[in-house]
Amino acid sequence: MTTNENRPIALPLMRKPSRVEPAFVPPGSAPASGPLVDSFGRVADDLRVSVTDRCNFRCTYCMPAEGLDWLPKEQILTFEEIEALVRVFVGLGVRSIKITGGEPTVRTDLPQLVAKLRAVDPALEISMTTNGYLLDRLAGPLAEAGLDRVTVSCDSLQRHRFAEMTRRDGFDRVMAGMEAAHRAGLTPIKINCVVIAGMNEDEPVEFAGFARRTGHIVRFIEYMPLDAEQSWERAKVVPSERIVEAIDAVYPLVPEGNEGEPASGYRFADGAPGGVGMISSVTEPFCDTCNRLRLTAEGQFRVCLFALDATDLRGPLRAGAPTEELEMRIRAAVWAKWSGHRINHADFVRPDKSMSMIGG
User: Fold this and answer.
1) Which residue of 41, 81, 156, 183 sits 20 to 30 Å from the alpha carbon of 314, by its own alpha carbon?
2) pLDDT digits over 289-299, tens only?
3) Which phi and psi (to 5°) does residue 266 adopt?
């Protein structure tokens, strides 16, 4: 039993924004050179690339049990088109690529895409967010193709609850997938856990113990209004502060720096391996330091997860637009990025697409 005597105190982390002083440009115009900067001085260097809107799970907080109307194949970017657009983004200063979906591993021949992206720039950080169900057979080929690490979504360590939340009996396969990823060197493995009141809010301490046993990093994500059925309720949001307090009472925590990360990270005070993180998108938005961009599976460029509009890149690319035109479109969209989402404001408007259609 851990006592509170002489134990470290978990303090909130200060976020250091990634900012530059943008070169002088006329009001309303994006800089024609330099990093991808918006009008608030935030530099965007992290790109989420969705490769499909399809998923082999039906998570209750994401999509209906019957699934969604999937995009037809001809609307989905080909691997060659994704590679071409990533080259443009890398030329504009993007240094980190995360492959997402839907569920990216359901896309046929995914290691081929990873190899193409690795060839764009050997120094790129290339990772993937997955539900882990197919990782037991794909982890090795993905690592050989050049993938650096994986983040696995897992919302419960209880088999029956896992099945209830995903509408799939896949717990053992996901655990096997994590083990395969570890053997393949796709580390550090991060686990994303969406915490929802009335579902799994009693599991964070159990997940912290899992992190200590495996050396993985578990990140707890506040429930966000991005479900396809639009059943999100503010009352179901479990504040990250409460999760930190619950874990800290059993496994004392020490704050870590989180440069370039949306999660407030903590290590275990007793030196145990692994760690935990909090992504407080609702109660403590990190919009003022956001460096993320998103490319959807059908080639729509979104500068915010909650953006209400997008910039079409597929159309110009397929029409043979020169690199300069694509760069101009990207720079203009980033420059026009708003100061942040308005979840905590009365005038908040949900995006018309769910998380699986946007890309995590």
Assistant:
1) 41
2) 889 999 999 99
3) -140, 140
Return left, alpha or beta for 359; rule: phi > 0 is left, psi -120 to 50 is alpha, else beta.
left
Q: How far apart are CA 189 and CA 216, in angstroms?
A: 5
Using 50, 70 and 90 to split pLDDT, how confident is the model at 236? confident
pTM, two decimals, is: 0.87
Q: Which tokens sit at 31?
A: 């800089």
Question: What three-state secondary structure class fits 221?
Answer: strand
Closest CA to 256 of 4, 8, 2: 8
Write out the DSSP string of 48-86.
Answer: EEE--S--S---TTTS-TT---PPPGGGSPPHHHHHHHH
pLDDT tens digits for range 273-315: 999 999 887 777 677 888 999 999 999 999 988 777 899 999 9
Closest by alpha carbon to 294, among 214, 342, 353?
Answer: 353
- Residues 277, 281, 283: CA angle, nearest 5 degrees: 100
Other CB atoms within a 10 A radius of the CB of residue 135 amount to 26
Q: How far apart are the first and last CA of the chain?
A: 38
Burial code of 140-160, b = ≥16 C-beta within 10 A, e = fewer?
A: bbbbebbbbbbbbbbbbbeee
Q: Which three-class secondary structure state does DSSP give residue 87?
A: helix
Q: How confident is residue 8, by pLDDT bands cut at 50, 70 and 90?
A: very low
C-alpha span between 213 and 229 (Å, rounded): 36
